[in-house]
User: Fold these one by one.
Assistant:
Number 1:
Amino acid sequence: MLMKSSEGTYATMLTCDPNIQQVDIHASTKTSCFVAIPSVAHGMMTSDRNLQLVSTVLVRRLLGDADITPIQEVIDAGVLQRLVEFAQDESNDELQYEAIWALTNIACGTTENVRSLVDAGAVPVLVRMLTSENSRTRDQAIWALGNIAGDSPVFRNLVLWAGMMEPLLNITNGANISLQLLRNTTWVMSVLLRGEPSPDNKTILSVLPTLVKFIHSADKEVISNSCWGISYISAGGISNIQILLDTGICPRLLELMLDNSMPVRNAAARTIGNFVTGNDLQTQIVINFNAMPVLHTLLVSDAQSMVKQSLWAVGNIAAGTKEQVQCILDEEGMSSKIIDFLSSTDRIIRKEAALAVANVASKADSKFIKHFIEQGCMRPFCALLSDGDDGIVNIVLGGFEKILEIARQDAKAGDSTIMEQFVKAGGPENLKKLDKHDDEDIRNRSRQIRREYLVEEKEDDNDET
């Protein structure tokens, strides 16, 4: 998130001294601005306090111009260490603020740019600024540290180890915090929780009460930021999911999945989706809070991102117990909607729908398979054997391995419904076409299914011998 420069106190045309080239950063070409950097850097290195400030302002403004952004050139000019020095100079509030702003913009660059900041000692200096009595300096330091932490889990950990979380929480929970600052601090909290591996439990437990508090905020951006922070925790596996479920936030997250703000819905849906990747008990807790109607509502949403999130969650529920699969079947209209998505033009939606059907089939329950057949599943599921996505083809092959096993068991008991529907939908022909597939594993898997479950293939094998 790049902090753009604005017009502010200083004129667009800045002149550091007679030896420094006059530059209009809005009118000049990119080349002329780059040429000015060494002379501006020289101004920063002088002992003239006014010249230091004007030069730092110009560097900050160059870095904040999206059409120029000469981050590496500024680093190469050797001014990073000087900016870090200015950032801790509490005798000159304006210089300190401008230096931190420049560091914020540098932290928007590449990983190597951020590494240069870290190597220059910026992180501990910025963390110390979080306790500054100067609110502008403190708020800018928060943003700078958020940009550094957001680059990668490595730099996120460095920021955490430098002690950022405690003062950040103190600021966020302060009595007189402004809305804009609250938005920034909750965003930074989410950044500090993002990435793999997750932060340690101490960090998670320290920040969690604040995140839970602010998913009840009146501001949508604060809610969204807090939800994303929670979602990043939930991506850390079963133990993290349990920590979150123990706070009792599941009903609120399900409520937020139907919020009128798309960022809020996305963040809440991602968290619930992560919850149902947990163990069967954790998945059941989500279901018990009446999750199925909420997921169904998102399945029929016009927003594809919501459809994908919901399908992903339903597919994971289908991987649970038979009782959890029955919850999908009991939600009126949900099965037929999943089947509709097997023919979607969106590859991800097709894949998630196929996975949901394959997971239902994995339960090896004739009743479940017949339910989906009655809803019209067999033909579009067979058609996916010709999909251009190898991942989808493999999912469908896995589904048919289970479906045809059940079909064989039913046939032995005198019920050939499943096999008849498979043949009627063109299943044998679609499997046969995979003999020409580019992927050898898919070719072999298809042949194995035919040999195992289709009478004609067994007869052909016998004729060959």
Number 2:
Amino acid sequence: LYLRRVREAVVSTQSTGFDAQRKTFHTQGYAEDPTAYNQSVGTKYVGAVEKAEENQGRTVFEDEKEKRKKRKREHFGDPSDPEGYKGPWAEYVDQVKTSGPTEEQRATLDEWAARKEPKANAKPDENEKTILHIEDSHDYQGRSFLVAPKDGAVNLYNPEPPEKCFLPKKLLHTWDAHNKGVAKVILFPKTGHLMLSCGMDSKIKLWELYGKRRCVRTYSGHAKAVRDIVFNNDGSKFLSASYDRMIKLWDTETGACLSRFTTKKIPYCVQFHPDDDKQNFFVSGMADKKIVGWDINSGEITQEYDRHLGAVNTITFIERNISFVSTSDDKSLRVWDWDIPVDRKHIADPSMHAIPSCSLSASGKWLACQSMDNKISIFATQKLRLNRKKVFKGHMVAGYACQCNFSPDNSYLMSGDADGRCFIWDWKTTKVYKRFKAHDGVCIGCVWLPHETSKIVTCGWDGKIKLWD
């Protein structure tokens, strides 16, 4: 009891005496003037006089917080009335039932949402240009260069593939295609008389494969390297996906940029819907793990497939185009039904690696997947099952998205590799039938001409495209 009274006396002395004024002066900057205690002029302060008057001379020991008033609730109601009785759950009298951002916050949110919203048919870019490199763009009958010639040794209009394909042996022609590396080459649909290439110099070029083998047209409009290109069914238009986060639709003949699409993310791959009545739809695999479906006519997003855990690398249509397979950096394959954003099959295994490139056989029965563990895995498209008996090895592709491809008769499988070589395997035995040095840098792409028995096209990071026979 004695110690408690001593403690209370010490606290009382500190809170009202010299110690209280000293601590107040050190924290607040003011204290009472001790020379004015015996004078009748009132309380004077030294130091920050204005702050002392604002705080009414309170010391650090005095509580400046006002006691909170208890909020009042509405009347509880009559307990005998089950519907009208509120009880202890009655609302407060001053309770605000609606909440939301202020007008300034709402304006900021609307501006942020507008920047994030996917855009189509954006403003034309000043850098969108095209150059026609040939004078005879139309023949004497008025047909453009998109029409395949009929006077050649090979019938380019024959829908049937060659009966038997053979291995190429020599170099026929070399195109100095791009100032930087070539990313991909594709052939004109059905006839294959033209070749479209995209490069890291942000340009897209159209080439002749027969006749004089000239550069027909150059398409410029992307600000960064072009990653993927794809023709529609008749070859009159094509899509390009670039690292400048833009997907652009081009007119193949005139070189005009018809539409522009962006989600503010980098598109890794792009693919038209193969059906003739759905040529106004295409899907793009994005770096933000999504597959986005677009409608060219309206310029709007029709569907988002958001189940992958990594960037989407490839999209391949299978099963009469009612579904498609996607591969991703998350080391998995997913099968989707068209316009249904839930995958109906998910293939993932601890032994699997990322698949940066896929190719569908001419028969549509097999899907070749380039794996990052230096092998090509084969999946049957009917139920998408791995064929463990067919594994193609020998090349080195770890870290590179080297493309693989089939011969028109499905008797050979070929692929480039990181050392600039081109490998050709026998489909039945999975043995390497031929390997040759194709490019000085990485041989990133290869494609077999659809109506030729032994002609293939390769492209590499040395900026060249080569034709072999």
